[in-house]
Amino acid sequence: MDRLIEGYRRFRSRHWPQERERFEHLARGQQPPIMVITCSDSRVDPSMIFDAAPGEMFIVRNVANLVPPYAPDAAYHGTSAALEFAVRALQVEHIVVLGHAQCGGVRALLEGAPPTVSDFVGQWMQIAQPARQRVMACPDVHDLQLACEHEVVRLSLENLQTFWWVREAVEAGRLRLHGCYFGIRTGVLEILGPDGRFAPVPEGAA
Ligand SMILES: [Zn+2]
């Protein structure tokens, strides 16, 4: 906890004076144009990757950046609840599914969840079974983990469209869906193109 108190004090002394005005404005309400769905992995920081300020991105993090299919039942749907709020209440204009390299959730999907995390992780990763099956059916895959991480992003984008209000907003041109993938070792962001392939964002001046 000492680490957190120290960090908070740095935030108050170094950042708050410049950020105060922004937060006063944000206290009146949030209107983020972008929703990001990414992994809980501590090495993936969407605010850093996209150099975004508070108020710009509505972020949902879960194991392996998964979007479950639309299932309005009595189960506790944390990701679906956040999605509904972002799309129907905040009316975000973009949803970005951000996958990443060395994803432990995808590893659990491929190798089975370790026994110490067997209560929920294995069951949660069942959402990604179709991605695993597609990759396994592909004969020329040389990096199973990478192929599966990419496929999980594609699957989450497909599942997003099982939510009728997402589909409706996309068809009306009010909402766009995007797939991205972050290389932890390289720091390179890839974007899923209309051809269904991931390609690195070209380097350019900011
Ligand atoms: Zn992950």
How are helices and strands ordered from N to C?
HEHEHEHHHHHEEE
Task: Report the sheet-strand fraction.
Answer: 15-25%
Task: Quickly count the helices.
Answer: 8
> Main β-sheet: number of strands, strand sense, barrel status?
6 strands, mixed
Number of strands: 6
What share of the residues lie within helices? Answer: 40-55%
Query: Which compounds are bound in this model?
Result: zinc ion
The low-confidence parts are none
- Form type: globular
Q: How far do the termini sit from each other?
A: 36 Å
Task: State the secondary-structure class.
Answer: alpha/beta
| Rg, Cα atoms, Å | 18 Å
Q: Taking all residues together, what is the mean pLDDT?
A: 96
Strand order of the biggest β-sheet: 2-1-3-4-5-6
Fold blueprint:
Elements: H1 2-26, E1 34-39, H2 46-49, E2 57-62, H3 78-89, E3 94-100, H4 104-111, H5 121-125, H6 129-136, H7 144-160, H8 164-171, E4 176-182, E5 189-192, E6 198-200
Parallel strand pairs: 1-2, 1-3, 3-4
Antiparallel strand pairs: 4-5, 5-6
The protein binds zinc ion.
Key features?
206 residues, alpha/beta, six-stranded mixed beta sheet, binds zinc ion
Description:
- By secondary structure, this protein is of the alpha/beta class.
- 42% of the residues lie in helices and 16% in strands.
- It contains eight helices and six strands, in the order αβαβαβαααααβββ.
- It has helices at 2-26, 46-49, 78-89, 104-111, 121-125, 129-136, 144-160, 164-171, and strands spanning 34-39, 57-62, 94-100, 176-182, 189-192, 198-200.
- A six-stranded mixed beta sheet has the order 2-1-3-4-5-6.
- Helix 2 (46-49) links the parallel strand 1 and strand 2.
- The two termini are 36 Å apart.
- The relative contact order is 0.14.
- The mean pLDDT is 96.
- The structure holds zinc ion.
- Zinc ion is lined by residues 39, 41, 64, 100, 103-105.
